[in-house]
Amino acid sequence: MAKKLKTKEDYYLASQWTLMGRKLKKHKLAIAAFIVLAILYLGALFADFLAPYSLEEYDGIYRNTAPSKVHVMHEGEFVGPFIYSLEKTINREDFSVTMSENTEEYYKVKFFVHGCEYKILGFIPCDLHLFGVSEGSKGGSGAKIMLFGADSLGRDIFSRVLLGSRISLSIPFASAFISLFLGITIGSISGYFGGTTDIIIQRIIEVIGAVPQIPLWMALSAAIPAGISTVKMYFYMTLILSFINWTGMARIVRGKFLSLKNEDYVMAARLAGVSTWKIIWKHLVPGFMSYLIVSLTLGIPGSIVGETSMSYLGLGIKSPATSWGVLLQEASSVTDVAANPHKLIPILFVTITVLAFNFLGDGMRDAADPYK
């Protein structure tokens, strides 16, 4: 939180971070984006609790069904939120399948219900879920609530979106931080030392930048061993995205170092016998750290799109593990989407997340110049 500045003197003596925080708080769009991102990341953190079903739960009768209709009135009587079970009808003439609600029995929607087991934060056993359906009014147990509909195997898309967000939101974040570290380290070496070192590093960056991204993804993904676990795939995808995305940050850092390395305070540090790495990390990098954080914020959306694209192309996470890219891959057929438009719901989460990071980045970019 930004420190409150009471007097004009406090304003001019305040640190750059205090001024940035003060100006960022006035950027309503950035604050709204931050709140949206906080909700998305909290949803990913507690996805097992929020999702009514696990990735392994499916029901054939719900294959490709539309989002569940939640009712509150049954036969003219208010009973609270509930759903009906579905019945499948096959037309004997053209063999078309029709799904309809069985209105004879209803299933109440309840909160804090017991279901499939999971581990909170990976180590606390629990089976409590935010919501689910109870037994039917006549004792039946054949209904499921699917807020976003079901996929081709009868799995709940709402649960898969929540559980998939853990990968789609964490891989780009981890990748962006690794790219930031590589960009600062390699870019600082290139800009500070110059000469042959700078030439070699810049030619490497140009070679990586000249290769089209999709063939580069394919080449790097081909090096991943087949049949590895989801955890290892997560690790490899993070490395792949980091390997591709550090070059832009390195060039930004190089340019800053070229303009700052001959400043008086840097020359004074050299004459005082300060080591090269201490000059880089203590005197040069903090001078434009606010811009690096802004670049990091604006770079995360690119990593999100990258992870989604890799999974969509079948180069990343694969089913039964899930991510937003995997969900979109399963909706890649035009005829399938035309018949089941609810399968495109995951793309809304990708779009909202990317826009939120961009709005937050814009706000931080404006706040990085607090005296403006």
How would you explain this protein's 3D organization?
This protein has 372 residues and is α+β, with helices and mostly antiparallel strands. The chain folds into 2 domains: 8-45 and 161-367, MetI-like fold (Orthogonal Bundle), CATH 1.10.3720.10; 57-152, no CATH class. 56% of the residues lie in helices and 15% in strands. The chain has a 4-stranded antiparallel β-sheet. Strand 3 (97-120) and strand 4 (124-136) form a beta hairpin. Helix 3 (28-45) crosses helix 14 (345-367) and helix 11 (289-312) runs antiparallel to helix 14. The chain is elongated, with a radius of gyration of 26 Å. The mean pLDDT is 83.
Main features:
372 residues, alpha+beta, MetI-like fold, 2 domains, 4-stranded antiparallel sheet, 14 helices, elongated
Q: What's the topology here?
A:
Blueprint: H1 8-13, H2 16-25, H3 28-45, H4 47-50, E1 71-74, E2 77-90, E3 97-120, E4 124-136, H5 157-193, H6 195-210, H7 213-222, H8 230-260, H9 264-271, H10 276-284, H11 289-312, H12 324-329, H13 334-339, H14 345-367
Give a quick summary of the entry.
With 372 residues, the protein is an alpha+beta fold. It contains 14 helices and four strands.
Mean pLDDT rating: 83
CATH topology of the largest domain: MetI-like fold
β content, as a range? 5-15%
The Cα radius of gyration reads 26 Å
Total number of beta strands: 4
Low-confidence regions: none
